[in-house]
Amino acid sequence: MVLDLDFIGLLVAAVLTLVVLSYALGDHPIFRFVLYLFIGVSAGYAAAVAVQDVVFPQLVYPILDELNAAPSLDLAELGVRVLLVVMLLAKLSPRTARLGNPATSLLAGVGAALAVGGAAQGTILPQIGSAAGSFDMASFNLAWQGGYYLEAIEVIFNGIVLVLATVSTLAYFHFGAVSRGKQEPLRNLLVDSLAWLGGFFIAIALAALFSGVLLAALGALVERLDFLQRTLSLLLGAP
Amino acid sequence: MNWRVHTPVAAAVAIVSGGLVLASLLIPGLDEARNRVLNWAILLAALGLLLGLANLFRVHWEKLRNRQNPAYSGVLIAAMLVTFAVTLWEGSRAELPSWIFNNIQVPIETSLMAVLAASLTLAAARMFQKRSDRISLTFGIALFIILLGSGPLFGMEIPFFTRTLTPIVSGFLAAGALRGLLIGVALGTLLTGLRVLVGADRPYGG
């Protein structure tokens, strides 16, 4: 058996896997030690990638090019970048933190615009389109004209249930109520009924999400146990 | 110096930069200006990440100096510095950074995901112990149906669950509710984003 880097890696991975899985029996110092190791490695990796892929090509190399009289960016653009970076660095000290507000506000503004665009174009419009298309009219017409009335009614029923699930889920999160003087504010009866129904649909949706995560976690557990078994077989020299 | 001067400047920067990015989604010809602003935002986001990580380093350095759980902070700092130096020096796809990624980061991540199976099962059991209202009952029944119909159980398939009941619950009833949840989340995101873009909310400290 040759002690090469791959073999050491296999042993390290197996030990780390065992330590993390042992958390199922209870918290212990070695598990915490591994967690801190994980945070350190992740932080170091993220920092290096950020420096290598963003800070160097967007800031450091253009400055070096400028200093070497071979500019790769126009001076105004470089000036804005340097100014924004200096402003952000001003956030490091509480005394100068306010000077950094324009830099963080640019980040917030761009982030908000991307979130608004993404929410409208990526979720609201397609989801409303899908909800509107819940009634499969082509299938309904085909079934109705062919005399399959039960199937036609089923198409309509499915559409009604889908739309009801969507609307009642939204109603569940509607907390507007009419003021009634000194009495407790009262929610609209229709909204209240829909919200009651929405509770059932939300519970079903959360169960679907929960089962998805649980099955993924079980998949990871099976993969780790298989890895441990293969590593043990390798160590014992089993075929 | 009057610090209040900076408040409208910050709000104006947020409104103009956000407005430009949003307008570029609707009006053609603004691509170059949008890319320029996006590049600035990416640079600031990367620097923000680095500042956050520098703060993490500082906090644990202080703990190490004050001998508050020094072993944990020590391993965090050592792992952070070694990974940062090796990845920066060799490149993220080189042999040693890949070794660290594949033999330290991935096994811990996957094992944590595996431990989640036990945690989730315990959490669900505790929920049924402590709550027995209509929502938790619906959740429990739906979860039972979905899990039983997700695949063979001890090598046996229960066709009524796998082919009939589970697709109705997970693919039909849950789909409508998930659509409602998605629309609700997106509406919330839209509203929060618009409040930032009109300057009603100023999370940047203005």
What this model shows, in words?
The complex is a heterodimer of chains A (about 240) and B (about 210). Chain A is an all-alpha fold and about 240 residues long. Chain A is built from 7 helices and 2 strands; from the N terminus they run H-H-H-H-H-H-E-E-H. Chain A is about 75% helix and about 5% strand. In chain A, strand 1 and strand 2 form a beta hairpin. Chain A is extended, with a radius of gyration of 30 Å. With about 210 residues, chain B is mainly α. Chain B has a domain at about 130-200. Chain B is built from 6 helices and no strands. Chain B has helices at about 5-25, 30-65, 70-90, 95-130, 135-150, 160-195. The radius of gyration of chain B is 26 Å and the shape is extended. Chains A and B meet through helix 1, helix 2, helix 3, helix 4 and helix 6 of A and helix 1, helix 2, helix 3, helix 4 and helix 5 of B.
Question: TL;DR of this structure?
Answer:
With 239 residues, chain A is mainly α. Chain A contains 7 helices and 2 strands. In chain B, 32% of the residues are buried.
